[in-house]
């Protein structure tokens, strides 16, 4: 293989030929120079064109930023919606209840249990001692029950209360309108703040989708790579196993396992992982079947380059181009599966902040439209953003646009 025959542009292998690792403007390594060191942290001309194509899809570009902002905000949910202060300074001492659990004996009580900062006794103690308190904007966590509601649960958003609602609360022993804590989106049927549960539920849904997508993609890519690269009996046996596995009624098995095993985040993650890993196997297998007969792969084999290096250094980058376009759609599917299981009651443990459980409450409480509207628009927004991002990623890796 002569350096004069190497391509001088930045095109990537799509239908065969020389991979980008063989370009002469990078530092070669290995027997044939089949691997290369990255050129710093800057993007290659090819990836720059992909980024420009991604930004050209304005809907997907801004969807990515909106999704990232919402996700980052949800990561700090404890500082936004919590029934514990962020900081307390009293009697010359500093306390950080968001990070640490303090006994109520620190605040004038004698029970010796964990301090409840919404307790009137502790609030009175802090007021008498002129304490400095910094609270989150929302004084409710996802499991905090509003002990001063204006009506029976579920109660409507505080800002929607009318004079008739205030008169009803005064006549029936509920909290008067001048003595209410703000519930921006009302409460659910157990008296928990809907906005707080929404923030925590959004975070757990995104984290669940990210983890499930990442783990299932790693397993699916590895399985597809082994099938496509070795072929023969290895490919045949894997294909027959996948055909049998995918013929199992997934939903029924998920419901059975969820009802038998103790519910939990990682238990549910493991159950869904049993089936989600097969989504990318066929795509990666096809890319490896096509790429294993390229001339530079055959040359590497002849010179004794290990199968592992050939698979994951030279064939996998070509397969990842098509694979990456599927990841946002796989993530949206994972989030929707979690929401559906929570809606049916087979998802996260009872009491966990969940968008599916919020929709289930909306179905059972049609007289409280704020539950249904909140859950529907949140799920719709999340899935729409992921779909728009996926469309932009697809445009970015489209060879007709990349190499135009």
- N-to-C terminal Cα separation, in Å? 28 Å
- What is the CATH top level name of the domain at 194-402? Mainly Alpha
Helix content: 40-55%
Return the average pLDDT rounded to an integer: 84
Number of helices: 15
Order of helices and strands: EEHHEEHEHHHHHHHHHHHH
Structural class: mainly alpha
CATH superfamily of the domain at 194-402: MetI-like
CATH topology of the domain at 194-402: MetI-like fold
Low-confidence stretches: 1-39
Please name the CATH architecture of the domain at 194-402.
Orthogonal Bundle
Query: What can be said about the biggest beta sheet?
Result: 3 strands, antiparallel
Q: In one word, what is the shape?
A: elongated
Q: What share of the residues does DSSP label as strand, in percent?
A: under 5%
Largest beta sheet: what is the strand line-up? 4-3-5
Number of beta-strand segments:
5
Q: Taking Cα atoms only, what radius of gyration do you get, to the nearest Å?
A: 28 Å
């Amino acid at each position: 293989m002569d350096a004069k025959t190497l391509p001088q542009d930045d095109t990537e292998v799509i239908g065969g030929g020389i991979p980008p690792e063989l370009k002469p403007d990078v530092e070669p390594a290995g027997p044939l120079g089949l691997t290369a060191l990255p050129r710093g942290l800057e993007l290659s001309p090819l990836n720059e064109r992909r980024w420009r194509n991604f930004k050209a899809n304005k809907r997907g570009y801004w969807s990515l930023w909106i999704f990232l902002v919402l996700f980052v905000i949800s990561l700090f949910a404890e500082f936004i919606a919590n029934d514990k202060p962020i900081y307390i300074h009293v009697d010359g001492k500093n306390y950080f209840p968001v990070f640490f659990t303090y006994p109520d004996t620190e605040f004038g009580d004698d029970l010796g249990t964990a301090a409840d900062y919404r307790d009137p006794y502790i609030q009175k103690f802090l007021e008498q001692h002129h304490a400095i308190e910094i609270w989150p904007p929302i004084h409710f966590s996802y499991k905090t029950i509003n002990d001063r509601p204006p009506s029976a649960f579920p109660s409507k958003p505080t800002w929607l209360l009318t004079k008739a609602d205030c008169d009803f609360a005064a006549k029936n022993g509920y909290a008067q309108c001048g003595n209410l804590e703000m519930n921006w989106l009302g409460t659910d049927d157990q008296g928990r703040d809907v906005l707080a549960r929404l923030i925590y539920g959004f975070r757990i849904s995104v984290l669940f989708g990210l983890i499930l997508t990442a783990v299932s993609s790693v397993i699916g890519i590895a399985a597809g790579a082994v099938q496509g690269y070795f072929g023969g009996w290895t490919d045949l046996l894997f294909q027959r196993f996948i055909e049998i596995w995918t013929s199992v009624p997934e939903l029924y098995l998920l419901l059975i396992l969820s009802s038998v095993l103790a519910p939990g985040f990682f238990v549910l993650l493991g159950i869904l992982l049993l089936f989600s890993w097969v989504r990318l196997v066929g795509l990666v297998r096809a890319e490896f079947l096509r790429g294993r007969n390229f001339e530079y792969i055959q040359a590497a084999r002849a010179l004794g380059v290990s199968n592992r290096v050939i698979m994951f250094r030279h064939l996998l980058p070509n397969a990842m181009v098509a694979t990456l376009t599927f990841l946002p759609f796989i993530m949206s599917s994972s989030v929707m599966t979690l929401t559906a299981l929570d809606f049916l009651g087979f998802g996260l443990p009872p009491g966990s902040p969940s968008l599916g459980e919020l929709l289930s409450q909306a179905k059972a409480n049609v007289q409280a439209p704020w539950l249904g509207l909140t859950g529907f628009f949140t799920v719709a927004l999340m899935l729409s953003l992921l779909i728009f991002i996926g469309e932009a990623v697809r445009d970015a890796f489209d060879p007709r646009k990349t190499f135009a």
